[in-house]
Amino acid sequence: MRLGNRSPDRGGRPAASALVDALREREATLATAESLTGGRLAALVTEVPGASAVYVGGVVSYATALKVALLDVPEDLVERYGVVSPECAGAMARGVRGLTGATYGLSTTGVAGPDEQEGKPVGTVYVGVAGPDGESALALELVGDRAAIQERTCREALDALLGTVRGNLRREEPGLG
Tens-of-pLDDT digits for all 177 residues of the chain? Predict the structure, then answer.
C-alpha cells in the first residue's frame, strides 16, 4: 500500500484519543515497541488525558541488538528477514507484549531515511500488532521526508490497532455488526 501525506492532524492525536477510549472500554492495555518512530508513538498516546489507565510503557529499540535483547526478536529471524520486515514487526509487537504483560503490543520498524536500509527504499515501513487473538503486520510504502514518514507511521499504527480493538469489541457484543 503506497500512501502519500494528508494534511497534518498533529501526528495522530484524534486516532490516539480514540484508541485510548477503545482500550479503556475494553479494559485492555497497550505497550509500544518503536524503531523508526523513536518514541513518537508513545508520546502521542501519552498526550491523551487518561492514557495512564491503558498505556503501560514502551521500548525504543533503534539498534538491532536491543530488538534482540529487550524484545526477544530471534537472531535467526533478523538474519533471515532483516529488521525492516513484517516478521520483525510482528516479533517486536509480541516481544513488548510479553515484556510488559500488556493486552496489546504495537510496533514500528522501517526506513525513514535519508538512506535505504537492508536494500529497502526510504518509506518502507512495517507496523506490528500483537494481541490476545494473534498478531499481524501492516506493510506501508510512505512518501515524504523523514519527519513526514515518522508522523504517518504513527498515524497508521494507531489506526491499525484501533481497528483491531474495535473488531474485538464487536465480536464480544452480540447484536452489533
Answer: 444 444 334 446 799 999 999 999 999 999 999 999 999 999 999 999 999 999 999 999 999 999 999 999 999 999 999 999 999 999 999 999 999 999 999 999 999 999 999 999 999 999 999 999 999 999 999 999 999 999 999 999 999 999 999 986 544 444 433
> pTM score, two decimals?
0.89
Of 149, 133, 170, 160, the closest CA to residue 11 belongs to 149
Helix (H) / strand (E) containing 99: helix 86-100
Identify residue 45 by its one-letter amino acid code: V
Distance of alpha carbon 174 from alpha carbon 145, whole angstroms: 45
Query: In what side-by-side order are the strands of the sheet with 55-60?
Result: 2-3, 134-142, 124-131, 104-110, 30-34, 55-60
Phi, psi of 160 (to 5 degrees): -65, -45
Report the alpha-carbon distance of residue 39 to residue 144 in Å, rounded.
Answer: 19
- Residue 52 grid cell: 495512564
114-133: buried (b, 16+ CB within 10 Å) or exposed (e) per residue? eeebeebebbbbbbbbbbee
Q: Side chain identity at 60, as an amino acid letter?
A: V
Residues listed for the chain:
177
The count of other CB atoms within 10 Å of the CB of residue 159 is 16
Determine the residue type at 34.
E
